[in-house]
Design goal:
It is globular and about 65 Å long. It has 227 residues and is an alpha+beta fold. Bound molecules: flavin-adenine dinucleotide (FAD). The site of flavin-adenine dinucleotide (FAD) has 16 residues, from β5, β6 and β9. The site of flavin-adenine dinucleotide has 16 residues, from β5, β6 and β9.
Length: 227
């Protein structure tokens, strides 16, 4: 499903051009998809009634389009339709301890996407988007569970954002201390960080005899760590 043209570079515009630490930028589309596909939460930034609102939410990707979903009463999804929005996805990869406070840092991969959001009305695209969002959260789940009813679909808003204008930035590696500080008797280094999942816990109301499916079992092996 997600076989968009990864060789195509990300479009460099005035607003996606990295200023500080530009060497940490990754300009290829494959890096953008890798950051998005490893994530679960994005932050949608949109101006509502003249003030900026940035809210965390789930998402899914189909090729060159990012899909967000939520209640049809969701204020930010409604405000975003036809508006220029900004979406970010962030992975924390490590805590970097330097010899000075100044050079403490975080290792990360992050993506920033700009574009005009579009409320999705087409029923087929809406259904495909909902599948993408569900699969991003729990791969394999769309096929395993009851599909949305017409009433549930009516209560759901779906927003599409083209993955045309985006930037990707990553920090890796040890601290970068001041030359003279390397002689200090202070521990320096890093600890890696990644999102991991515990073992599945059955719903207390789960009927007896229902077996745990493989794709749910697989969740506890999932990690946000870079490949
Ligand atoms: C987990 C995490 C922690 C961070 N902590 C700090 C911190 O404590 N202090 C700090 O100064 N910076 C931190 N950064 C980096 C921060 O995101 C900015 O890149 C940096 O502060 C430069 O900001 P700027 O306003 O000068 O952006 P500019 O470089 O001027 O931004 C220009 C354009 O570059 C792109 N861009 C900028 N930053 C990112 C990014 N992170 N990912 C993808 N595209 C980007 C956007 O398209 C943006 O419009 C952190 C990043 C992450 C992911």
């Amino acid at each position: 499903m997600n076989t968009a043209d990864t060789a195509r570079p990300l479009s460099a515009t005035g607003r996606t051009e990295l200023g500080r630490k530009a060497d940490r930028g990754l300009a290829d589309r494959a890096s953008l998809y890798a950051v998005l596909d490893a994530g679960l939460i994005c932050h949608l930034g949109v101006v509502i009634d003249g003030y900026p609102v940035v809210l965390p939410t789930g998402y899914g990707r189909i090729g060159d389009t990012l899909y967000l979903h939520g209640s049809s009463a969701n204020r930010s999804l409604r405000a975003a339709d036809g508006q220029d929005v900004c979406v970010t996805v962030t992975h924390l990869d490590g805590l970097v301890c330097a010899r000075s406070i100044y050079h403490h840092s975080l290792n990360y991969r992050s993506a920033v996407i700009y574009g005009t959001a579009r409320a999705v009305a087409d029923p087929d695209e809406r259904m495909a988007a909902l599948e993408a969002v569900a699969e991003q959260m729990v791969p394999g789940q769309w096929a395993a569970v009851r599909k949305p009813t017409r009433k549930e679909l009516a209560a759901t808003a779906v927003l599409a954002l083209p993955l045309a204008e985006a930037s990707v930035k990553a920090r890796t590696g040890p601290p970068g201390d001041e030359e003279e500080d390397y002689d200090l008797d202070i521990w320096a280094g890093l600890t890696t960080a990644a999102l991991t999942f515990g073992p599945p816990e059955p719903d207390p109301l789960l009927r007896a005899g229902i077996e745990l499916q493989e794709h749910i079992q697989a969740l506890s092996k999932r990690t946000s760590a870079p490949l």
